[in-house]
Amino acid sequence: MSLTYELSEIDSIAVQLLSKVKSKTLLFYGNMGAGKTTLIKALVKALGAPDLASSPTFSLVNEYQTAEGRIFHFDFYRIEDEAEALDMGIEDYLNTDSWKLIEWPQKIESLLDDDMQKLEIGVLDNGARKLKFC
């Protein structure tokens, strides 16, 4: 399944995405600049977080609180190996019932389960995005 959207439609795409995923752990694949962080910001908003989401590139994880619980947003672009993710406690995060939104999951592939929702974002020639459920 896939969704094609313009950036101006990001908020409605986030709501659609949340209604279709089978897991609270979402793995975002895509090239630099594909729109992973932009989509995650819209998801955090759609999940009811009062704070604006930002990229956790340097901190590795940002946490947001909603009325229903916590959201963890991870960005593993800068890590060199899985040991860094283990050192920051990724296993503890993964074992919670909270939403986990993970950018660059290929950096920690062996720590992830098959039942997590994989999403691939690509940029089309016209600038629209294509979101593929894998």
From TrEMBL:
Record Pfam families: TsaE
GO biological process, one term: tRNA threonylcarbamoyladenosine modification
PANTHER family, sorted: TRNA THREONYLCARBAMOYLADENOSINE BIOSYNTHESIS PROTEIN TSAE (PTHR33540)
Organism this protein belongs to: Antarcticibacterium flavum
rRNA-binding is among the record's keywords: no
Chief location category: cytoplasm
Protein name: tRNA threonylcarbamoyladenosine biosynthesis protein TsaE
Top-level taxon in the UniProt lineage: Bacteria
UniProt cross-references to InterPro entries, sorted A to Z: P-loop_NTPase, T6A_TsaE
Molecular function GO terms recorded: ATP binding; metal ion binding; transferase activity
Subcellular location: Cytoplasm
Keyword Mitochondrion: no
One of the record's GO cellular component terms: cytoplasm
Family: Belongs to the TsaE family.
Keywords annotated in UniProt: ATP-binding, Cytoplasm, Magnesium, Metal-binding, Nucleotide-binding, Transferase, tRNA processing
